[in-house]
Amino acid sequence: MSLAQKLKLYRKQLHEQNRGAKESSPNPQQLDQTLDDKRQNQAIRRAAVALDADLRTFEDQYVLVHSERLPLATRIGPYALDDLWQTVASWQTFGAAHPLSAKGLHAEDLLFFDTETTGLGSGSGQMIFLIGLARLTDRFLELKQYFLPGPGHEAAFYDSFLKDCTSLKHLVTFNGKAFDWPRVKTRHQFVRDQVPKLPAFGHFDLLHASRRLWKNRLESVRLQSIESNLLSMGREKDVPGKLAPFLYFQFLKHPEAGLVKGIIEHNREDVLTLVSLYIHLSNKILGKAETDLEENYEIARWFEQIGDHTHAQTIWEALIRKDSAFQLPAKARLAACLKRKGDYQQSLKLFESVIAAGGDESGLVSIEAAKLLEHRFHDYSRAIQYTMSAMTQLGHQRNDEKMYPLKEAAYLKRLNRLKLKRTKKFS
């Protein structure tokens, strides 16, 4: 090979080496991004230490997991944690089905669950950034909280949470049916190819039960309102829920544990309150705790609505023996209960007692009495009297533009039919 050819080959090799070196070295922008990511990861690690949380990894993502084991003697408001054993045991011997019944379950099957989110909206843009859960074991209550350190770590977040819930049988939440779990389902869609499937489970939503019993007593049926007014609990330093999204977004900019420590404590308190509240509600429904007249009335209504007329009747009978604002409404409901059971004589007697005492402001009790008199006793004259009384009461409800015309037409139809029957009877 000539000298010229050797020089030409050398220049070609040199050019290829220079090009390869250029391609392999990062540009300044890439270098800055790498340094930012490194600083962010270091800050997250420091935050994990400050929050007493384990830093779990999944592929190249992180999730912070704080774990606690609380002794069963720990008291949450009026109850100790191990009171849950007796509550679940009491449901096993309770003869009726109920939406809060743990019949067929063990105390260990209940998972008390709460989340914190970046907003209250239902769209896919709202993230869950904290999941708290607790379950009983034979030696302690295990509480875990999963904290999302950034939007790019959701796969690690849900992978860790779902792997810890493989044996989930029953959730216990406060508004979880409408809020918490639907948002879990929404965000899970984005990472479903990377993480375990969502489990199937039962669900006790304590918000619905709390509304039934205490909606007339509390200005707002919020968990903290129930804590302070009904469970004799209070929080000295609590981060308001409305501040949680703002503090979390601040954390995303500057991952400092102090920004979110209060949110994590708030979530922890919420989860523990669910244990106490489930015991409290169950004990009232099971008759294991003292109940006032209004609570008794609402519990009976609940039994009635789910078709458990036996338990409802027992409570109605107790209420009508007490002189209170619930005596006449309880009489009317007991009368309806007896009517379903075929005790028409006693049912009519109770309906007429309510009417005579002035407890029929809506006219509905008079209509029920008229129905019995028409179909069971064929006393059309008295049935007409009660129907006309109901129409008089209806006249006071003319402002109800939607229902008034419908009821008026139905009452007139009944009245005309009764008059026709009376005429035929005496002709």
From TrEMBL:
InterPro entries: RNaseH-like_sf, RNaseH_sf, TPR-like_helical_dom_sf, YprB_RNase_H-like_dom. Gene3D superfamilies: Ribonuclease H-like superfamily/Ribonuclease H. GO terms for molecular function: nucleic acid binding. It comes from the Bacteria. Residues 111-281 form the YprB ribonuclease H-like domain. This is YprB ribonuclease H-like domain-containing protein.
